[in-house]
Amino acid sequence: MIDISHLAPTETIKIIIGASSQKYQGWMQTQKEELDLLRLVDWEDSFKERRIEAILSEHVWEHLTYEEGVQAAKICYKYLKTNGYIRCAVLDGYFQNKEYQNIVKIGGPGPLDHPAASHKIVHNYNTITNLFEEAGFEVELLEYCDEDGKFYFTNWNPENGFIYRSKRFDHRNQNGNLGFVSLIVDAKKVEGV
Questions:
Q1: Which residues pair with 16 in a beta bridge?
Q2: pTM assigned to the model
Q3: Where are the beta strands (DSSP E) in the chain?
Q4: Other residues' Cβ atoms within 10 Å of the Cβ of residue 17
Q5: How far is C-alpha 121 from the chain's CA centre?
Q6: pLDDT, tens digit, 9 for 90 and up, residues 30-39
Q7: Which end of the chain is more exposed for a tag (fewer CB within 10 A), N or C?
Q8: Is 14 in contact with 23 (CB distance < 8 Å)?
Q9: Which domains can be identified in the chain, with CATH numbers?
Q10: Between helices 125-134 and 66-79, what is the axis angle to 10°?
Q11: pLDDT per residue over 17-76, tens digit each?
């Protein structure tokens, strides 16, 4: 459970799922131990009748199966305000870089303590769009590769959710060369519950 009792009743709630060391002004950090994407009771205990403006998730959804991803998206949908959104970044299965694909593959490339060891899916723009649409969201693609590996980029606002592993901000992307990309979407709740 996360404690939001210090927030005024009208104060905007923006959370980072699986924040690790991510810390951004105006955003609350959460870790799996206190707010598990798949445990509805964590959300009920944390937010009760309050609704969330925005959810930021950088490289979390690949640690869920497709079905778990839909379940998590449905829980998020329930606790978002109308017009609230999830900015979600995941690994891109269509990025045509052999080293990248070896590192991000399901089960990871090596020891069990490697972050990729718990990867359960490597999404592409079709699977992540379908996943969030199945949960009721409208999806806008911000950064992604198509089936031929062509990279697409929309000039998104980092103040609405900063993604480090992105075209503009990842240190591995320099001089017009892409060394590491993420598939990034905004999934928006357009109807109230």
A1: 29, 56
A2: 0.94
A3: 14-17, 28-29, 52-58, 80-90, 138-145, 151-153, 183-188
A4: 22
A5: 14
A6: 999 999 999 9
A7: C
A8: no
A9: 14-96+122-188 (3.40.50)
A10: 50
A11: 998 888 899 999 999 999 999 999 999 999 999 999 999 999 999 999 999 999 999 999
